[in-house]
Amino acid sequence: MLENLTDTTEVNIKPDNGSVLIRDGVYERIRADILACVLSPGSRIFENDLAKRYNVSKSPVRDALLRLQEQGLIEVLPRKGYLIRPISIGDAHDLYEMRLLLEKSSVRRACDEATDEDLASLDQFRSVDNGDLVHWVMYNRKFHRRITELSGNMRMAKITAEVIDQFDRLTFVGVLNAPSAEASEKFVAEHGEIIDALQARDRSKVTSLITKHITKSKKRLFSVLGNQPIIE
To answer: Does the predicted model carry a pTM greater than 0.85?
Structure first.
């Protein structure tokens, strides 16, 4: 009887891979829509509506919302649904501070740890097709995430990627239209200078360039954030 009980217990606790995939998929889709401001900051959302939107049951939606609450992206309103948290000026300052610390460390490590082939892979970011804002944000995110991947420290890369992902909301709110051709060329040129310094393994120069790049980004963003009605 003990053997039968043990067998039954093992069967009961065996994970349902299909269920896990559904839950993770729903979480990723809701999170992506929040970061891209498809689900607007400051708006109220409900489990039933989200279940219909993503064509799933309420259970994976509820699990996803709990995970997003832990990340500070949503707030639970007892018996009133959920609130997508407005973008906080204070939080934006904190994100920039974290991003600067992490990306400075990432580029220095990349200079030391990345192979020549890995650094050459950055050449794909020397140009970008002019497109809509979504296209531009994806290009920018991939560039900065690729650099942190080359640091060789996977834990730091994971944390940095999460911080960079949080910037999607700031970018979509702070920039109403895709960058002009002139602005786009300027941003890409800055990326090109960072790539040159990395490929030359010039730790001092690349640290200075990434610092200037992020600082200029902060100034541009905060020049428009204060005029947005969904900013705390």
So the answer is: no
**pLDDT tens string 187-209:** 899 999 999 999 999 999 999 99
Q: What CATH class does 89-225 carry? A: mainly alpha
Q: Return d(Cα 197, Cα 203) in angstroms, integer.
A: 8
CATH 1.20.120.530 intervals, the chain: 89-225
User: Tens digits of per-residue pLDDT, 88-142?
Assistant: 888 889 999 999 999 999 999 999 999 999 999 999 999 987 667 778 888 888 9
Integer Cα distance of 141 and 51 in angstroms: 29
Q: List the structure tokens of 105.
A: 């460390």
What residues contact residue 77 under an 8 Å CB cut-off, 6+ apart?
44, 83
Task: Please state which architecture CATH assigns to domain 2-84.
Answer: Orthogonal Bundle (1.10)
**SS3 of residue 75 by DSSP:** strand
3-class secondary structure per residue, 78-137: CCCEEEECCECHHHHHHHHHHHHHHHHHHHHHHHHHCCHHHHHHHHHHCCCCCCCHHHHH
Q: How far apart are CA 186 and CA 10, in angstroms?
A: 59
Spatial separation of the C-alpha atoms in residues 82 and 194, rounded to whole Å: 41
Least confidently predicted of 2-11, 78-87, 172-181, 194-203: 2-11
H or E element in which residue 77 lies = strand 74-77
Edge-first strand order for the sheet with 81-84 is: 44-45, 81-84, 74-77
